[in-house]
From TrEMBL:
<keyword id="KW-1133">Transmembrane helix</keyword>
<feature type="transmembrane region" description="Helical">
    <location>
        <begin position="16"/>
        <end position="35"/>
    </location>
</feature>
<keyword id="KW-0472">Membrane</keyword>
<keyword id="KW-0812">Transmembrane</keyword>
<protein>
    <submittedName>
        <fullName>Uncharacterized protein</fullName>
    </submittedName>
</protein>
Length: 524
């Protein structure tokens, strides 16, 4: 075998040597150096040397459309003018699969020989090696080489950018590559990428411009120095059209911001039976759903999730960073009909999608949608007891607002006696009780508590977020009789409950009721 190989190599070397001599006879002046160099190390000339020789002989035979395709891709991918790029090397090759010899992890490549080219393009500072097919319609990047000292992208920033790109393209990080990273100085807090109607801090921000490459896709990110702030440059990026390319939601169509006690909101509309429903998750674990546009909707659906489920969902929202998709809409594909549009809002902003495009959404958005559907379905399957299911108090039944010197008010009615009493706590420490309907005011009673007690009670109202129960009523169970109904008010928040359901109220509300009863009973 060694003898055969030696004969094969000697024969090939002889052929190359003969070609070089003939070439030298044709042009002694300019090519004499080529002959000298080519024959200087004949003993070490292997098959790769043969390919290099063929490369030199065929560099100028690269088809123009392949050259144009490579230059166009390099220009767009690395944001370099085509005039500053040039093909410095090209070699005809036959690739052993449909991936042009460059397969991504988990990618399935057609097992067929593909004629094409190995092309090296450069801007004078860096070189990029491309594999292409014969006409340049298919091309892939094989490697990147830089000259001089390269400023290394911090690993934490690199991870942040790759994670953002992974979520945006719905691709694993293993299929993404940082193809360019340059230090930049942005002239505002929005990293030179302000959204419509957004105010940006006018401050110099040192950061990076990072280009992430995937198969046929390129994302351009602007970041700060640490990667804690990053934004996608939509105009400079090239994202494959999969039928759900996002568009910005017009400002006029954005829903209102969340109330401070709301963690998540979903508005659904359309479908075969066009109705619009709004579902909110409150920070006390309640999920409330009602039909929008329906007057006097006094019976919204109410469910309760456990504190653990609530905590896990909040952590997931924080981890998935939906701020990267803020105010984006993923429309349905052309020709779709009778689909349901969902508009979800978190503290990070609003996103819109539909049931047709749901499976093609970015990975982080899909994760949040799935978690939301799971938590909602679990709550629906395990309804809270009727005795603590709250209902909104009809507007016509709400008591008047408090006077500005009143801290808290309780109105009690019903029971065996059937009388109605009002008890108020004033900010000067006076506690007053009188019977409504008593023309002579004969049952008025007045006590006084310390300013310290007043402040402590006000702190209880704040700590237990009493305002989150705004205008809710916790009714008695069916069949109950002779119970006392309590209507309590603080600031602009009113809550109604009764002595039967008192022990089944939400814990925060129970804490407020307990503190109030302690004050009232201590001085009455």
């Amino acid at each position: 075998m060694k003898t055969i190989l030696k004969i094969y190599l000697t024969t090939n070397q002889a052929r190359i040597f003969t070609v070089l001599i003939l070439t030298g006879f044709l042009s002694i002046g300019s090519n004499f150096t080529l002959i000298k160099n080519a024959t200087a190390t004949p003993a070490n000339l292997m098959a790769e040397s043969t390919n290099e020789f063929i490369k030199e002989m065929t560099t100028n035979n690269l088809p123009r459309r392949v050259e144009a395709a490579v230059l166009r891709d390099a220009s767009k991918r690395w944001q370099i003018s085509i005039e500053d790029l040039q093909i410095v090397e090209s070699t005809p090759r036959t690739w052993n699969n449909g991936c042009l010899g460059i397969s991504q992890p988990g990618e399935i490549c057609t097992q067929a020989l593909v004629p094409g080219w190995k092309v090296v393009v450069s801007d004078g500072k860096q070189k990029w090696v491309y594999h292409t097919n014969s006409n340049g319609r298919l091309l892939r990047i094989a490697s990147t080489h830089s000259k001089g000292k390269k400023v290394k992208l911090p690993s934490s920033l690199e991870n942040a950018v790759l994670q953002a790109a992974s979520r945006r393209l719905n691709l694993p990080i293993s299929q993404l590559t940082i193809v360019q990273a340059k230090q930049r100085t942005w002239n505002n807090g929005c990293l030179n990428l302000a959204r419509p109607d957004e105010g940006c801090t006018q401050a110099i921000v040192n950061g990076w411009k990072v280009v992430v490459g995937a198969v046929d896709q390129t994302l351009v990110y602007h970041t700060d120095a640490s990667g804690s702030a990053l934004r996608l440059n939509e105009k400079k990026s090239e994202i494959a059209d999969n039928g759900i390319t996002p568009v910005m939601i017009p400002t006029s169509e954005l829903p209102p911001a969340l109330n401070k006690n709301v963690i998540f909101r979903q508005i659904s509309s359309g479908g075969l039976f066009p109705r619009t429903y709004e579902t909110v998750l409150l920070n006390d674990g309640r999920i409330i759903r009602y039909e929008k546009g329906k007057e006097n909707d006094l019976e919204p659906q109410v469910w309760q999730v456990s504190p653990q489920q609530l905590k896990e969902f909040q952590k997931l929202l924080e981890k998935q960073k939906l701020s990267e998709l803020r105010n984006l809409s993923y429309p349905a594909t052309q020709g779709s009909a009778d689909y349901i549009t969902y508009t979800i809002t978190t503290s990070d902003g609003t996103i819109q999608y539909n049931d047709v495009s749901r499976n093609n959404l970015p990975e982080n958005l899909q994760t949040v949608v799935k978690a939301w559907n799971d938590i909602r379905n679990i709550a629906i399957a395990n309804p809270i007891p009727d005795e603590i299911k709250p209902l909104p108090i009809p507007v016509s039944e709400l008591p008047p607002q408090l006077d500005r010197n009143v801290v808290f008010r309780q109105i009690s009615s019903g029971g065996f006696i059937g009388k109605t009493y009002e008890t108020i706590l004033l900010n000067d420490g006076r506690l007053m009780q009188y019977r409504i309907g008593d023309a002579n005011d004969s049952e008025r009673r007045v006590w006084r508590i310390s300013q310290q007690k007043v402040r402590e009670f006000q702190q209880v109202l704040k700590d237990h977020r009493f305002n989150e129960f705004e205008n809710l009523s916790y009714p008695a169970t069916n069949g109950s009789a002779d119970y006392i109904t309590y209507t309590v008010t603080s600031d602009d928040t009113t809550v109604r409950y009764n002595d039967i359901s008192q022990n089944n109220l939400p814990k925060n509300l129970q804490a407020v009721v307990k503190a109030w009863n302690q004050i009232r009973k201590s001085y009455q």
